[in-house]
Amino acid sequence: MRTEIRQVEEQPRKGGLRTMPFIIVNESFEMIATYGLQTNMLIYLMIFYNMSAATATTILGLWAALSNGMAIVGAIVADSYCGRFRAVAFGSISTLIGMIVLWLTTMIPELTSLSCSHFQHVCNGTTPIQLAVLFSSFGFMSIGAGFVRPCSIIFGADQLEDKKNPKNQRRIASYFNWYYVSTGISTMLAVTVIIYIQDRYGWQIGFGIPIVLMFLSVLMFQLGSPLYIKVKAKETENLIIGLFQAAVAAFRKRNNTRLPLTGCDEYYRWPLESDVLTPSMDFRWLNRACMIEDPERDLNADGSASNPWNLCSVERVESLKALIRILPMWSTGFMMSVDMGVFSFSILQTKTMDRHIFPHFEIPAASFTMFLLIALTIWIIFYDRILVPLLSKYTGRSRGLSPVTRMRIGLVVSCMSMALSAITERIRRQKAIEEGHEDDPNALVNMSAMWFVPQYALLGIAEAAHTVGQIEFFYSLLPKSMSSFASAMHTVGSAISSLIGSILVSSVDWLSSTRGQTSWFSNNINKGHLDYHFWVLASMSFLNLFHFLVVCRFYKTGNDEINRSPHVADDRECDYRLLHES
């Protein structure tokens, strides 16, 4: 995520494929442990902390936002200061500490409030100390996830870096494939096996097993330490700070009319760039950031900028422009992640329904997320192995559907998923009332939970189509120095979406419970109106689709393909470009 001079300790017999088991096992166990805890957390908070469904969902949304936001912090700290090995080691230990603290809440009764049935009029509230312990466990796990996830995959690639090997790129590509396969399998195990253990054997064992897995994760990573290639990062300027510097420099020179917006011969370039870039005409007011006013004042003896907050290179200014170009399209993805967060409530729905697939086997309510993962995987395989070859054969497009088309498909399908969720919940609630369960939220409704599978499947397809398309779209617009921003922008977007989702739930809960009315998110979902909330999300998703179509009008398409190998900043090679600001 930044331009840096990296020094690799040149020691014989380090790195290579033999380090992969340590790195992949570390990340796999971390994901199984973390997702195994998060998926069922709504039920845990409602039972042992007497939280309402709305409050628990809001807290979990803020937790997700913090974890995603910390990923950016972890990446910057690892690149600029401590290196990726120390970042992964620190993050793994932090996650383990958070899990131990959370497990202690199941072992020490004083750390949780007494359970409260829906027949009680007054329930014991949680104390500040109990909440402090709970939130500290969330904080440790968020810090751990923020340092492990953005650094672990790149740390593995460092072990395979061998420019002398002609097959090195194929080996690294194979590593990425197996890495993502391992994370997919880990997530599936988390939402099935770990959730089943929690439902069947209780919270103490259900939270204890992830601790064992996380301890093995830390141990495996440390055992491989003597074999690792450890890339050291110097404390040099990172890309994010450089972008801020470019914006500040342009703002400082905003009133300097002596600097022309075009046709200037004194552009600052540092370090010496392979291709002499000329500032583009988009967002011309930013060009002042790279214009030299006074060489004696602005430049050091070696030609570098004396004050980077007053003078930036042409490349840095063009990087900032590239980031600004993708912001409109980036904003269209927020609603997708907000829709993904709706399935916290689906756990409450499926708990009241028949979840048997065999006479003596019942799917845990929180494990229905696996249908989303299955649909996501099937769509990716179908698209890559069947649809792309067909489109390539009949249309001549080697990469199949364009990124914008795939994003459009994802947004349309997400609208369908939310509408179907509203319809299904209305049917479930009506059946519960007809069967006399209006005052008993724990009563089983004579309705199969398999009715919820289509909405999970649709959202899985929407996520696969939109997310992959959006990241590929970003990659087509960003220069090579910012290629890692493609996935980083998605991470930041997920954090913002989680925050939006939490604010939305809190607002709807407050508005729907005014004047003594029953909240839509009542703990008794038979009295609440989750279907109304789903219709709100469906309407917002439709408005977001309209917003997406409007944003698309500000981009013009060129070749509809992304097939160049070097990722450069030359605007002529970008497939999608923001139209001229005039």
TrEMBL record:
The keyword Transmembrane helix applies. Signal peptide: none annotated. It comes from the Eukaryota. Keywords: Membrane, Transmembrane, Transmembrane helix. It is found in: Membrane. It is a multi-pass membrane protein. The chain crosses the membrane at residues 20-37, 43-66, 87-109, 129-157, 178-197, 203-224, 326-348, 368-388, 490-512, 532-555. Belongs to the major facilitator superfamily. Proton-dependent oligopeptide transporter (POT/PTR) (TC 2.A.17) family. Belongs to the major facilitator superfamily. Phosphate:H(+) symporter (TC 2.A.1.9) family. This is Protein NRT1/ PTR FAMILY 1.2-like isoform X3. The lineage of its organism: Eukaryota, Viridiplantae, Streptophyta, Embryophyta, Tracheophyta. The gene is LOC107019160.
